[in-house]
Amino acid sequence: MPSIRVAIIGLGNCASSLVQGVAHYGRTGSGRGLIHERIGGYGAGDVEFVLGVDVDARKVGLDIAEAIFAAPNNTKVFCADVPSTGAKVIKGVVLDGVADHMVTAGERGFIVSEEPEATKAQIVDALIATQADILVNFLPVGSQKATEFYMECALEAGVAVVNCIPVFIASDPIWEARFREKRLPIVGDDIKAQVGATIVHRALSSLFTVRGVTTERTYQLNTGGNTDFMNMLDRQRLSSKKESKTEAVQAALAQRLEDENILIGPSEYVPWQKDNKICFLRIEGSQWGDVPVNLELRLSVEDSPNAAACVMDAIRCAKVALERGECGALTAPSAYFCKHPPKQFPDETAMRMLDSYLADALRVAG
């Protein structure tokens, strides 16, 4: 089978885990740790990275295989010997992709390259020249203008998109219609983790619901030490992130909670945690006879590998959609892999929808 040619916007921790994973699974052929071993005939090792776009001086000009290990990346290295991709990282645009406090944060933040920014025409030309199938958006939270810039590039270049961040594209009717008009698929928005805070919160909220317990109040507080958490110290960049995570949990409740009874979102940046994310979760409810029941949970995960598993499946779903001529937001993959899809479904329903979608893709591939 041909490889899946992928361009990445933002060579941070998530990109590092994704690229390491492709090298790891391509070398070992193992299915351990994958959500789906094969999708439409494609394995995790069938992805080829053909273009990287970043603005950090420590990454621009490097091969993608080198850039993923450059500072300020601090995720776990589980595959140190990633082979050269032959694809260099080019400088993109800054726009709102870099918060002011990230520039003044020194080595832990971003060091913007002094090279000229790429123009839209240059990004489009690069996507076409590298024959990219799919563009993966790993920009920092709050990068509304930058994301829209790259979405324009993808539309013009004829490239499918996996939108991993909470800037609403697939779930925005106007943007979704534009992908549909161009006959291009998109998976989005805001990628879930394999077993992360949001999916665990949804699962426990659903458990309360199906067991007849009324949820009255809940919170989810997270701490971490990667650039994502540092970026989110600017609370003005958090509005879409909080909406995405909150709506994902609200959708799993029997009755929507009032705003004062639900708090979900990042809490604090703790540098020494690096890419480790710790979630503190509490659900308060009433059971038989209005007797109270409270649940508290602490979850500790490596943030970026946790996301990479879902991104890998989303990439392969997007490739299958390209081959089948599907366009617009992919309903089942978006519902299963993303926090803010165009339409929310219970996780069990989304899983059944995805299973049906993948089975159909397998029949076509076979």
From TrEMBL:
A GO term, aspect molecular function: inositol-3-phosphate synthase activity
Position of the signal peptide: none
Any GO BP: inositol biosynthetic process
Family matches, as InterPro entries: MIPS, Myo-inos-1-P_Synthase, Myo-inos-1-P_Synthase_GAPDH, NAD(P)-bd_dom_sf
Record-annotated Myo-inositol-1-phosphate synthase GAPDH-like domain positions: 196-304
Family membership noted in the UniProt record: Belongs to the myo-inositol 1-phosphate synthase family.
Protein name: Inositol-3-phosphate synthase
Organism: Novosphingobium guangzhouense
Higher taxonomy: Bacteria, Pseudomonadati, Pseudomonadota, Alphaproteobacteria, Sphingomonadales
